[in-house]
Every structure is written in structure tokens, then in C-alpha cells.
Amino acid sequence: MKKNKLLQSLNGRGAIEAISLCGAIIIWEIVADFIIRNPIKLPSPYAIFLSYLKLWEIIPVDICTSLLHFGIGLGAGAAVGVVVGMLMGWFRAADRVFDPVVEILRPIPPLAWVPFAILWGGLSHYAAGFIVFIGAFFPILINTYTGFREVDKTYIDAAKVLGCKEERKLIKSVAFPFSLPYIATGIRIGMGVGWMCVVAAEMFGVSKSGLGFRLFQVFWPLHMMDKLVAYMIILGLVALFLDRLFRYFVEERLFKWKKGIVK
Domain segments of the chain: what residues? Predict the structure, then answer.
């Protein structure tokens, strides 16, 4: 009984996660200091902590810049992806028109568009946002398309019996609400892909600032590996924060009615 209570206490307070992280940091420190013994190949957690103290003034600026690029691209990707996915999923003619173009462009890696982003937008926030748009657009489109395709015909027939016969009303009252969980999943996937794209775009010089720019254009050429790893950790933490924030507002607020189904 006491062991069960102890395990429940640890689970409830996040102690297991904290112990896991502490253990990983200790092992990392031991490997870096006593096995690798080369700060360029593997900087220690202590060296990375010291690098944060040196970089604390520029870290918020770089985070805000990358979030700006991310917001531009994700916002545009969500707006266009939902509209195009809705048209393709609901109207057969639109599906036939857009499908060949989408299937040709979809396999092209977002980074392949970097030269065009620079030509069209220069080294600007919009150029970096364009790369994020390419990465986020297709997951959102595909999931929106799937959501509209999966609408149960029974719901449509019931709505028509109740007087909802216009396409616009059917989309607004039946198809779109039904597709919202699919759209939310697409946006969440698009957020993950988009965040990787914004970092990659900044690394390849689409922007003159940001986390990716600092990581690859400043720290790597000078072999500042402790600072490089520090920024890598920031990238992961920001992505984790964005994902948890999205899940909180979507799963806990917007889709609260699905909690019993999901959990």
C-alpha cells in the first residue's frame, strides 16, 4: 500500500519526469568530462549553463524573431490550407482541379524553395515566413480535406430534412464543425513541420536574425559548440511550449466535449 501511494505521489507531482531529466544531465556531464574530454565534440551541461549567462541579452530577441517568422508562415498556411482543403474535400470539381497541382508540389522539400524565397522576398521576415508556409500548408490541407471527406452522409441528410439545403449552410453547420478535430490535428502537425522549417530557413540565410541564423551563421563557423547546443535546447523548449499551449487551448477548451472520448 505504501509503495502504491508513493508511486501515485510521484506520478502526480511530475517527480518521475524530473528524475529522468536529472539522470540524463548527470550522465551527459560524466560522458563529456571523463569520456569524450573534448568540448568541441561534446560540451558539458555546465559549459552550456555558463553560455546562457553570456547570451541572456540576445536570446529573447532571437526567440521573438523566429516566432515572428513562424507566425507569418503558420498563419498563412492555416488560412490557405483550410480553404483549399475545404474546397477539395467538399466539391468534387475543385478536387479534380487542385489535386494534380497539390500532389506535384507536396513532395518537394520546403528547403528547395529557399532560392525563390530569397529572390521574391530578399533577406526579410516574409521570406522566412514563406518557407514556414510551404512546410505547414500541406499537413493542414490534407487533414482538412480528410475531415470534409469523412463527414457522415447521415448528418447531411438529417440537416437537409431540417431545412439546411444550401451548400454554404451545410458547410457552415455540418461539415466544418465535424472537420474541426481534423483541422486541429493538421495545424498541430503543421506547427511541428513549420518550426523545423523556420530554423532551417534562418540557417540557410533567408533571414539576418533568429535562432537558426545565430546557430548556423554565427556559432558554428566559430566552433562555439557550447552556445550552439544551448540554442538547440532553446529550439526544443520553444517547440514544446508551443505544442503544450496549442493542446491546452484546443483539447482543454475548444474540444472539451471530446475529453471522454480521447482519454
Answer: 2-37, 50-257
